[in-house]
Amino acid sequence: MTKIDIIDIKRVITEILRLWRKTLITPCKRSVARGKGVCVILILLNSSTLLFGQEISGIVYELNDEKPVEFVSISITGKNVNTVSDKNGKYTLQINPDYYNDTLRFSRIGYNLYEIKVSDFLELNNGNVVLKRKISNLEEVVVDTKKTKNRSVAQRFWGWLTSCRNKEDGSCDQKEKN
């Protein structure tokens, strides 16, 4: 571990302890005095949210007909945080607080790319995303029925050798026939 990692860990632990004192420790002291063991569960649930960030979930819809879009790739640009929507367009993604200034990306072949800053997405959105179909015009394709011969150097050499052996007088033409 580097010195920076240790400082970050200390900062996270200090923040957790501060929040525990403020929200859980005082109520837990009262509940333990009354014989209630719910305190431990509350502390564990609260710490997982602080350590692992926020979980977002929602559905990806298509713009025109509002049908769910399946198999949309959802990721944070440049980070190893990603998921894919299921066949009903539903997704769930765990976002670390360190990534709040990064870009959240929704992409699928045949649809326009949708990118938004993670913090903006968390503030403005309920988790549902609308993607617009990407329509591409294809240029004219010409199909030619002429067959082409692509032969390697080895095929040319062996073809030339075979033509030499097949001649009655054993002579070889120096020109190769394609």
Architecture overview:
The protein has 178 residues and is an alpha+beta fold. The protein folds into two domains: 1-51, no CATH class; 53-135, Carboxypeptidase-like, regulatory domain (Immunoglobulin-like, Sandwich). Helices cover 38% and strands 19% of the residues. The protein has helices spanning 3-33, 38-52, 118-124, 153-166, and strands at residues 54-62, 73-76, 82-84, 90-95, 103-107, 114-117, 129-131. The strands form two sheets. It has a four-stranded antiparallel β-sheet with strand order 3-2-5-6. A hairpin with a 5-residue loop joins β2 and β3 (82-84). α1 (3-33) runs antiparallel to α2 (38-52). The longest helix has 31 residues, at 3-33. The N and C termini lie far apart (66 Å). Mean pLDDT is 74; it is low at 42-50.
Short description:
With 178 residues, the chain is an alpha+beta fold.
Q: What Rg do the Cα atoms give?
A: 33 Å
The appropriate CATH architecture of the largest domain is Sandwich
Sheet-strand content, in percent, reads 15-25%
CATH class of the largest domain: Mainly Beta
What CATH calls the topology of the largest domain is: Immunoglobulin-like
Structural class: alpha+beta
Strand adjacency order, main sheet? 3-2-5-6
- Helix tally equals 4
Poorly predicted sequence stretches spanning 5 or more consecutive residues = 42-50
Q: Report the span from N to C terminus.
A: 66 Å
Average pLDDT, all residues = 74
For the biggest sheet, the summary is: 4 strands, antiparallel
Order of helices and strands: HHEEEEEEHEH
Overall morphology: elongated
Number of domains: 2
- Helical residue percent band: 25-40%
Count every beta strand, where a strand is a DSSP E run of 2 or more residues: 7
* CATH superfamily label of the largest domain: Carboxypeptidase-like, regulatory domain
